[in-house]
Write a structure and sequence with these properties.
The structure is a single chain. The chain is of the alpha/beta class. It has 4 domains: about 55 residues, Urease, subunit C, domain 1; about 140 residues, Alpha-Beta Barrel (TIM Barrel); about 60 residues, no CATH class; about 110 residues, no CATH class. It is about 35% helix and about 15% strand. The protein is built from 12 helices and 13 strands. The strands form 4 sheets. Strands 1, 2, 3, 4 and 5 form a 5-stranded mixed β-sheet that branches. Strand 9, helix 7 and strand 10 form a beta-alpha-beta unit. The longest helix is centred in the middle third of the chain and has 14 residues.
Length: about 400
Amino acid sequence: MSYDLVIKNANIVDGSGAPARHGSVGVEGGKVAAIDKTLSGGKREIDAHGLTLAPGFIDIHTHFDAQVSWDPLLTPTCWHGVTSVLMGNCGVGVAPCRPEERSVMAWDLVNVEAMPHDVLLNGVNWEWETYPEYIAAIERRGTALNIAMMVPLSALRFYVMGEAAVERTANTEELDMMCGMLRDAGRGTIQLNLPRDQRGLITEESYATLDFVARELQRPVTWTPFVMGSKDLPERLHARIQPTLRDGFRIATQTSCRPVQLFTTLREPFMFASLPSWKAAFNRTAEEQIALYRNAEFRREFSEDLAAGRGTVFRGRWETVAIARTKKEENRRFLDKPVPEVAAIIGKDPIDAILDLAIDEDLATGFRLAAGTSITSWWPRRFSRRTS
């Protein structure tokens, strides 16, 4: 039999859970047509030289909503074996959006994902207003990877409610309008927010939501626990979801198989976005931000937020934050040092140390946060096992 493509001499991992095996794969019409020890007759043949040949990975948490309009390859994800991506995560995106509201949508991505505002405004072609028009625009351009999209809640709320979206919940009429727009966008996936307590454990209400969805859909449910270093949290999470697991329903946690490190600056301080004291730092000029960071009242409120255990990405563990970039030569001595060490060197509290350093460098100082599994390597081992 002939094939469009034959990949020979490969270490084949087929995704079924079976052990890897040596062999060849034949592809015909864009689909796997045969897997055997030896195959021939390919119009094109590739010798894998023993490299692993496997199905593409599915990346279920991406933020390519803007980038997809100028980069059909979706780099760098395509370089890492990913062949399918899910966009629209965290409720942020670029549609639906009226022309006069584009800057607001761009700020959402700046604040949540630290994307440069000018890149978003000038890089995105903005040839849509509604979500169906956004989908059509992406389809016209084409992508190298398979993509799935979720309608971003922030964009949907702002489109319907305007500035009131950041001040109150939606009324019945507004909810009806949003539901209608979701129906117009077609069938798909819904992402829900699951509130947690101050120690990171999902609340009883959040667990009830997970349990309800799993039982109603009769399908596996996946969720992100956002573990940020509490070593007893995996066991407490496991205990929380045990009743549902014992009844035969699948609630699979998402985790990272490699350490996660986040880079940020205080010009785009998204790691502090969930802290009430930092709300005034967003959508501001650099000069306004510097004035805020100098303010003693702001520093006091920042300290109170951390003492109260508030925060999502950052919850006050300064030992997980290090200096990743400096602008001035005299500050290079702080590179790769954790904040507590820097604070000790200059004789300041960690809050004063990072704010004063950033101000001294016109907010160009870079900070690296070790998040999730980078400080809890036991997490993937515990929750990557199938629990039932």
